[in-house]
């Protein structure tokens, strides 16, 4: 059985978790770039910041994509529903706040005229379904042909 993590070690582990340029995000970026789509990164649209700092911004289409980890953003899949046993109340509250914050940021973006897509880490397992989903989202409501 694994030893219990010290608070210092847990803090060190948590400090290594990235919010940008994660493996799931890079996979989505590579897939879309290969399909000819161009985008801005991490919530930049011109000089202003968008609510929630979306991972990919398609300013000309007024569309944004978030690539979320299932655990951290409390997705309804098996991984997202895993509840840590250590410090359970803290994690439940933290993940609930994250879910509420995500919903608020999505509302702000939609109210400002942006279309929002959230890609969940668990969706990356089926590459062709993911590609179809992304292209449908990006091409919906536009007269431009796919690049």
TrEMBL record:
Its GO biological process annotations read:
mismatch repair
Q: What is the top EC class of this enzyme, as a single word?
A: hydrolase
Q: Which InterPro entries match?
A: DNA_mismatch_endonuc_vsr (IPR004603), Restrct_endonuc-II-like (IPR011335)
Q: Which GO terms describe its molecular function?
A: endonuclease activity; hydrolase activity
Could you say which EC number(s) this protein's record lists?
Answer: 3.1.-.-
One Pfam family it belongs to: Vsr
- Keywords noted in UniProt: DNA damage, DNA repair, Endonuclease, Hydrolase, Nuclease
| Gene3D superfamilies, sorted | VSR Endonuclease
- NCBIfam families, alphabetically? vsr
Which family is this protein grouped under?
Belongs to the vsr family.
Function (record text): May nick specific sequences that contain T:G mispairs resulting from m5C-deamination.
What is this protein's name? Very short patch repair endonuclease
What organism does this protein naturally occur in?
Answer: Arthrobacter nitrophenolicus
């Amino acid at each position: 059985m694994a030893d219990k993590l010290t608070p210092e070690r847990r803090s060190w582990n948590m400090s290594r978790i990235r919010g940008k340029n994660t493996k799931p995000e890079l996979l989505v970026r590579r897939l879309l770039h290969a399909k000819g789509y161009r985008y801005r990164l991490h919530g930049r649209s011109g000089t202003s910041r968008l609510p929630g700092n979306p991972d990919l911004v398609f300013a000309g289409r007024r569309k944004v994509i978030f690539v979320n980890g299932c655990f951290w953003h409390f997705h309804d899949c098996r991984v997202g529903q895993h509840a840590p046993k250590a410090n359970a109340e803290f994690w439940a509250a933290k993940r609930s706040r994250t879910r509420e914050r995500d919903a608020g940021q999505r509302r702000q973006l939609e109210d400002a005229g942006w279309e929002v897509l959230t890609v969940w880490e668990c969706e990356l397992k089926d590459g062709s379904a993911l590609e179809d989903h992304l292209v449908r989202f990006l091409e919906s409501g536009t007269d431009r042909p796919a690049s």
